[in-house]
Amino acid sequence: MFLDRSYYVASVLLLGVGTYMLLASRNLVKKVIGMNLFQTGIFLFLITSAFVDGGKPPVVGGEGPYVSPLPHVLILTAIVVGVSLTAVALALIVRAYDEYGTLNEDTLREVRGDE
Fold first, then answer.
1. Residue 64 DSSP one-character state
2. From its phi and psi, is residue 60 left (phi > 0), alpha (psi between -120 and 50) or beta?
3. Whole-structure pTM over 0.90, yes or no?
4. Which of 54, 58, 60, 62 meets the CB 3.0–4.6 Å disulfide criterion with 66?
5. Three-state DSSP class for 63?
6. Could you give the CA distance from residue 109 to residue 74 in angstroms, rounded to a whole number?
């Protein structure tokens, strides 16, 4: 019984830790890590929701129950988008560090306010 819900608990924990890191951290790299944890929590939740006990892939010739392939396809697409988003975010962070010499959000806001 607990093992059935342990994946939901893990996904909620990942969502919570990711949200906390996004909101509480002032370091831009930690915000990106929090964004990735949040995203992983969503992936785990969707995959767990699509799980069917004893389910098989919907291939011709098999008997049911079948597992819907839609969540898996959506997750694969989301992984590609997530990797791209992380790469762009890290590139922007490197550019901001080269320009201003800091990764602290508050310091960047102060420096940008002076310009």
1. S
2. beta
3. no
4. 58
5. coil
6. 36
